[in-house]
């Protein structure tokens, strides 16, 4: 896989894109934990690093107990959770919790709907990947959740002007959010999200998946590309484009797709609640 073309100075590029808006900070403990995971540290060491940040610990435990992670009983011990989940799912958990705590509030977009949509995409991406590309299942979950992570940042930096673009894309079937962003600002949330992820030193496959989730047939996992068709709308209107894409491109029959949609819907409600900044 060819990864995201790295910026020579991602912080400068991000500043050019979002102006004077102060960049959200990524938790230092999360960055050090991700470094430990990449370096092959023992999972006990990883858990001990996470536990130095009580807020991150609470978020991770709350997320791992959501239906999306399928734990058979409630987990209250972080070391036990990390030993059960394994390296790739712990990385996904840390990224989920850290990004959820780092993105800004907004007065111009419906953040509740934003997180519900993001959670729905994550759960759908995981289940679709299990059918079409099992090796990418964990990566697809994380990228499905975080593919629009630049949206709250753009809302905070551009205010009501961005709110108008976001609202218009919700109500017009003939345009998409990324198309309206490009028309209005000259760039879209996928590009800003990739630069933001690079500034935060997130894993390269995730940066690439964020960058290319609207670029058909390029470098994002197929499940991530599929769930990019889920709009920021309330059910059931947000899923029609997804159904069409999965039938046409992934060759999933309706009898295969509808159980995926039903299960992902049940999982995503508790996931959205666990990662929303209001909790």
What are the salient characteristics of this protein?
16 helices; Hypothetical protein af1432; mainly alpha; 279 residues
The termini sit apart by 37 Å
Helical content (DSSP H or I, runs of 4+): 55-70%
Principal-axes shape call: globular
State mean pLDDT (0 to 100 scale): 88
Number of helices: 16
**Whole-number count of domains:** 2
CATH-defined superfamily of the largest domain = Hypothetical protein af1432
CATH class of the largest domain: Mainly Alpha
Low-confidence stretches: none
Task: Please give a structural write-up.
Helix content is 65%, strand content 0%. It is an all-alpha fold. It contains 16 helices and no strands. It has two domains: 25-102, no CATH class; 105-279, Hypothetical protein af1432.
Short précis:
The protein is mainly α and 279 residues long. It is built from 16 helices and no strands.
Please render the helix and strand layout as text.
Elements: H1 10-18, H2 28-38, H3 43-50, H4 54-64, H5 78-85, H6 87-102, H7 111-132, H8 137-146, H9 150-158, H10 160-171, H11 177-185, H12 189-199, H13 204-211, H14 222-227, H15 240-248, H16 254-275
Helix pairs in contact: 1-12, 2-3, 2-6, 3-5, 4-6, 6-8, 7-8, 7-16, 8-13, 9-10, 10-11, 12-13
